């Protein structure tokens, strides 16, 4: 304290964990130090567990490698992907905090159009602590933002909004494209900074990207499973999208909201489109059946917790999607295993939503 001035404490400092999946040294954290150093990091090391991962000094963190995952989960460790960033969801499971922010190790601090560094975590927190409006679209986008409000004709009975479960951020520079789009637009870069946040309407799916994402673990954590991807699986790069589709139908059912837009991060490294195509190949075909599956899914009224919704969803995956490929039988079983492991590590985690159905 100097001259009577007391620095503001970082928001949600003791209620939020930052989850980072990685296979390399985390030098990228130096750029994020002003924003992330006050928070606790959960680092999930993918690949060779004998490799040493260096973390810059001054960060409070815990690091888990594959050996740790196997030791903690035992036989249930089979539900955590190997050699894929989907392993990050193990960090969600072992966290004991209410909120999670997850970021990739090739994501740097973005600058807004004025040149000011964007504190992505601060914006995610604002999004999560502010209601969502999935039941009626506000043409001024987020009505709770300073300088905005509900427009004429917006029903007063819906202006309270619903709790926000997920904040989905965006990216400057390298867009989050699939392999075919990467191949035809190899030099394309996203330079548009759209200064807005909006609620994704009820009944509308979206492709969730996991590299700049925050969520309320108490509200939606058990559904934030990134599936079976990577080593030994016929598909990759659909981990975050699978979680996004599952989360969206569950949020719609439980009366929760998802916001997208701000904050931006700077995505620095384009992955190899030919490698990506090999990972995505089956998914590109399968998604034409998967998306209608989610669009037509109705969760039972008796399902009032995230876990109950997710177990019902796993049964539907087995029943409706296994005809596409035996992989979906494995995925459905892994979804159940995930919930069992989640409940074992989080015995109080009922995650019953208090939103409006």
Automatic annotation (TrEMBL):
Catalytic activity annotation: UDP-beta-L-arabinofuranose = UDP-beta-L-arabinopyranose
InterPro entries: Nucleotide-diphossugar_trans, RGP, RGP_fam
EC number(s) from the headed UniProt entry: 5.4.99.30
Site feature Required for activity, where: 152, 159
Carbohydrate attachment residues: 152
Family membership: Belongs to the RGP family.
Protein name as catalogued: UDP-arabinopyranose mutase
Source organism of the structure: Lupinus angustifolius
